[in-house]
Fold this protein.
Amino acid sequence: MQDTAWQASLILMSLVGLGFSYVAIQSGSRDEDYAPMQKRAYRLRLKLFWALILVFGPAMIYTLTDLPYAAALARSAQDTRTPQVIRATGHLWYWELSESHIDAGQPVEFQVSAADVNHGFGIYDPDMILVAQVQAMPGYVNTLRHTFEREGTYRILCLEYCGTVHHAMMTELTVARR
Amino acid sequence: MLTTTHTTTTDDRGAQTGVVAYLFTAAAVVLLMMLFGLLMRLEQAQLIEMGPQPFYKLMTLHGAGMVGIAGIAGAAVMWHFLRQYVALSTGILMTNLALFLAGVVMILTSVLLGDFHGAWTFLFPLPGQSMGMWSTQAAALFMAGLLVIGVGFLLLHLDIARAILARHGSLARALGWPQLFGRDDGKAPPPTIVASTMVTIVNLIGLVVGASILTMMLVNLYVPGLQIDALLAKGMIYFFGHVFINATIYMAVIAVYEILPRYTQRPWKSNRVFLASWSASTLMVMFIFPHHLLMDFAFPKWMLIMGHVIGYLNTVPILLVTGYGALMLVYRSGIRWDMSSRLLYVSLFGWAAGAMPAFIDGTISVNYVMHNTLWVPGHFHTYLLLGMLAMVFGFMYYLGKPDRDAPDGLLDRIAFWCYTGGTLGFALSFLYGGKESVARRYAVHLPEWVPYDKAGAAFALLLISGALWFMLRFFARLGQTRHDHARTPEPASCPAVTA
């Protein structure tokens, strides 16, 4: 997902840059008759508008089909396996987990909360790439469902600024096949 | 270039002094905050060693300072041009600056003497729960400082609302609704009025929400029994924060609407598409804020999905109305390129380009693995540094130029490329860090993250050198600023309201 976001951003930013560069290069000689050019430009803008709708519209809708909120419900409806439930509570400045050993390939349901201030529950895979996250808030329990397919040591990092030792608020999860 | 002749009055000179005082303050604070930012990147790059607490103190000052000063700089642009159409109070303008400076002193005292480092977002209940790292008084002083600054801006926007209402009769007319929804008689208010009205509406609401949560949290600091819901507090803070920082761009873009047509000798008219996009932006800027809360699963789902959808829709006016409008204006226009026109032109590129990784971040499934990574500062530094701030620098060059044919120096052109290239490299180092899952707001980075930090620090140095030159140039020309602050006669498209 991160690679896709990076590539899509670079492409779109480059397209914007190309448009601005092209117009800057074409800005030197003056076309005194602005009105006909304006009409042509408005027609092109309409085409660009529909192009944006056609590209961004489906992307916007498609990405709504895999929401982390609905996923918990949808997957539980299809997946009859009972998830391993782990209660995770953020404290200043440590994580309290009810369990830190996970079965690979089995669904896990994290019930995430905070005892004091806002924290962010970020799960990093063995290559230190973020695979899932949810906010940990005092007074609320946020449910995060994730299936760990890959074995190894995962790290939990705090992803909401919580004060002086925020950067060191880490713990580990061990994922192994039974 | 269009030229007008004015008679300068005492009132005009006061207005001119006010705008210059705003820009002077903005330049000084921006420079200081940029240096704080550079120190933070150097610390993450392990090139200096200051320790976590000083880092988070700088981070708190950098965030609060940049947001506040963006408001001051944007207000200077808007006020300067809006005053040419409506009667604004110079007294209120200066009151806002005085309150801003008072708030800055309170915030500096809170952070530097009281050790407060709860971030500019002051998420409840962190300010009151520091584990002994700062006192209740320090937290109260910080939030009271923000409140004082907010009150100043509230006064400024109330004065702007009063002046617009006195001239146009209603905010709907000032947004051009009669022309948008009725017959377009070509008499819609000029872009400056439309943009200022939009900013005033959203900021008045945003500031009241911000002041409310600040007051609630101040009371809670001393009367903890009066509980606040943490999710409600977060929603209110992000509503206020999002609206305020976005409004700074919508204020600064007025410089583009006003100045670029003078260079291209082509008008920027308030046609129906323009009016529709600004009315849509008025709503979108307010209702997009849940995209800051996408990882708060307890927040109402419909609002989270609304944040996702509006994130996509919001790119349309930026790309196809303001960005495309500038391209139309410049294409085969014979524009005379100087520092002002260059900076204003590149500012629209910066805004549009930064909006791309921003709306991608607002996609829920992307946010799931990129929220609160360096991706976030990556996109907002693009549209704030290369968008909003470039607009302000363009305005400074425009204002400081003794006459239209005064040549730019070689150092100006070098500074332009240092700033543009440095900002792009700086923002891309953040974005790449986000792609690699580097966590945001960390004083200490893991060894594998350090190379991106080093690249970021190098590009920061480059962009700061460019910005420093822009500011020195402006300071050197302070005595020669243009004398076109006087109100121009009302254009035919802007009929007076008689009743």
Residues 1-7, 485-499 of chain B have pLDDT under 50 and may be disordered. The CA atoms of residues 26 and 69 of chain B lie 6 Å apart. Chain B has one domain: 10-480.
